[in-house]
Amino acid sequence: MATVSPTPLLKDELDIVIPTIRNLDFLEMWRPFFQPYHLIIVQDGDPTKTIKVPEGFDYELYNRNDINRILGPKASCISFKDSACRCFGYMVSKKKYIYTIDDDCFVAKDPSGKDINALEQHIQNLLSPSTPFFFNTLYDPYRSGADFVRGYPFSLREGVTTAVSHGLWLNIPDYDAPTQLVKPLERNTRYVDAIMTIPKGTLFPMCGMNLAFNRELIGPAMYFGLMGDGQPIGRYDDMWAGWCTKVICDHLGWGVKTGLPYIWHSKASNPFVNLKKEYKGIYWQEELIPFFQSVALPKDCTTVQKCYIEISKQVKAKLGKVDDYFNKLADAMVTWIEAWDELNPSGDISAKIPNGASK
């Protein structure tokens, strides 16, 4: 798994999106795996600060001034001072696939001590089918050495298109602040050699720090919400996108995989700072989960955009009374789709999007 292909997979069909506030020295360790690909760097915070990128990488860098210039008044839907700003990179990409990674994520090693090529594993996940309608007890039946078990319906063995590949992390686990506070020294050392499809009708907490998806299929649903500066909540950006995405994938018949690949998550964020960002989310999620579990999308929602607008209406109708923030978020969801369609005017997201975006 850790060897680099002579011709990198999907070299001209995938962008790597990185949100950051600092110099990207971490790219040095990813060089063998990332250098052939185009990077989209979304600089958060002070736009006058210069972010250094190691030499030899093909990249475009957008700061807040660029976001305001490109989106105009619609820039209000892109979060500021929060890694949720990464979704602007999804919007301006013109590639079929996206891999997004945080700048504190390093190359992990598999149990044999080999460097894990996370990107290659994500690509393999996205290029093989998913099985959301019937669980295979041997996990992913398309991996070498695995297959469908006895009793698995033959009519379902072709699987469906994989829209999302959700990777995991060694070292610092992706915990919320209360769990961080009670387990400050806990580290994830367990390497589980498994990939599975999350079943239809089952939600999951999506983490955005090691994530790949088929932008052409599901891109408009990958909105990381209104977080950070001026908002009452943070650290729920990727989870919001995950809940919306999963409901839409279930409706349109696509799959979401989770498991391999692992990255090495190098530093724990401050649990007290996190608690301040999260505490409303921890309270609200008890309403959010039942809401997403009960979202019903009508049959005429045949595109991701239509599904997403329908979810925004239901957010306003049902969650608006939980807090006025959800009315603002519902409006931002609509603004996001309008901005997406302006920058990606194909209309039908399943239509082929030309490759090779450049500022």
UniProtKB/TrEMBL annotation:
Catalytic reaction equation(s): UDP-beta-L-arabinofuranose = UDP-beta-L-arabinopyranose
Uppermost EC category: isomerase
UniProt keyword Cell wall biogenesis/degradation, yes or no: yes
Main location: Golgi
GO biological process: cell wall organization; plant-type cell wall organization or biogenesis; seed trichome differentiation; UDP-L-arabinose metabolic process
Keyword tags: Cell wall biogenesis/degradation, Glycoprotein, Golgi apparatus, Isomerase
Family: Belongs to the RGP family.
Job of this protein: Probable UDP-L-arabinose mutase involved in the biosynthesis of cell wall non-cellulosic polysaccharides.
Name by which UniProt lists this protein: UDP-arabinopyranose mutase
Originating gene: rgp1
